[in-house]
Design a protein that fits this description.
Number of helices: 8
Shape: globular
Number of domains: 1
Structural class: alpha+beta
CATH architecture: 4-Layer Sandwich
CATH topology: Phosphatase 2c, domain 1
Distance between the termini: 29 Å
Order of helices and strands: EEEEEHHEEEEEHHEEHHHEH
CATH class: Alpha Beta
Helix content: 25-40%
Largest sheet: 6 strands, antiparallel
Radius of gyration: 18 Å
Length: 301
């Protein structure tokens, strides 16, 4: 059975995960398991706001691993989604992914409705990633056995006023967009294989020979590191569907198969399960986590 988890208003508050709430109505979270300059407002013509996306997520430990070091958090109001893939042994990897996810969720616990929140979301994401580094460093000091822990970290924040997703990531967890039947990878992997590919060093033959390099990350969240996340904005359209996933999915299931499953006209929980099942059918050598953001169902709601 797969484990499912959603944010709720009754379990662990953002005050519990390291940051005071601005008011009593701030959202509480249930987890599976930089200081920055103020950004100036960006002037845009007022346009009809999109509804926040409908979200669902699911994780599975896979068929080989004895534990699940992945983590995710999705916001019940559609404001943000986070996926992390931990590394560094049973205790370290799970601790890293959940600690980093919680830090970003705490930083993103704000409304995203007015014309400044695309800029503010970027600031909050940078802050959250910075606090994730600090939190992992603090835990490593208390527990030397976790000194080599780390995690990928992928987060999206939806700004309703202009319909943008602000995206931040480190590592090789991916964000995909399905639009008009076409699946597009929006994030760049931070691993040795991808870096060699971007440098033009590999061709099809040498890439196949060096596929094991995909497991060697060049950037991630880890104690004492200072890697800066990639941050960008993606304009959403009604009908878009977005997928955040760990490499337990995209490292096993082919691009075309992901597109087919993601495009199904059914509830999001079924799509999550079908994506997990596709990884299991492929041997699922790693933990696998998926989170879906659906803008078609949001507009229909």
């Amino acid at each position: 059975m797969c484990e499912m988890c959603r944010l709720s208003r009754s379990s662990l508050s953002t005050r519990d995960i390291g940051r005071p709430k601005p008011d009593e109505d701030a959202v509480a979270v249930e987890i599976m398991g930089m200081n920055t300059l103020e950004l100036p407002p960006i002037e845009r013509p007022i346009q009809e706001s999109l509804q926040p996306p409908v979200m669902a997520a699911m994780t599975h430990q896979g068929l080989i691993r004895e534990d699940n070091q992945d983590a995710f958090i999705i916001d019940p109001d559609g404001r943000f989604a986070i996926v992390a893939d931990g590394m560094g042994g049973h205790e370290g990897g799970a601790l890293a992914s959940r600690t980093a996810s919680a830090a970003v969720a705490a930083a993103l616990d704000h409304p995203f409705d007015d014309d400044r929140h695309d800029a503010l979301a970027e600031k909050w994401l940078r802050t959250g990633f910075g606090e994730a580094f600090e939190a992992l460093s603090a835990k490593a000091l208390k527990n030397p056995d976790c000194g080599d822990m780390g995690t990928t970290l992928l987060a999206t924040a939806f700004c309703r006023h202009d319909g943008e997703l602000v995206v931040a990531h480190l590592g090789d967890s991916r964000l995909y967009r399905l639009r008009d039947g076409r699946l597009t990878q929006l994030t760049d992997d931070h691993n040795v294989l991808a870096e060699l590919r971007r440098a033009g060093v590999l061709n099809e033959e040498t890439e196949a020979e060096n596929h094991h390099l995909a497991h060697l990350l060049t950037r991630a969240v880890s104690p004492g590191a200072t890697d800066r996340p990639d941050i960008f904005r993606a304009q959403t359209h009604p009908g878009d569907r977005y997928l955040l996933c760990s490499d337990g999915l995209h490292g096993v299931v082919a691009h075309d198969k992901i597109a087919t499953l993601l495009g199904q006209d059914c509830d999001l929980e079924t799509i999550c399960q079908d994506l997990i099942d596709a990884s299991l059918d492929g041997g699922a050598p790693d933990n696998v986590t998926v989170a879906l953001l659906d803008f078609a169902k949001a507009q229909d709601a």
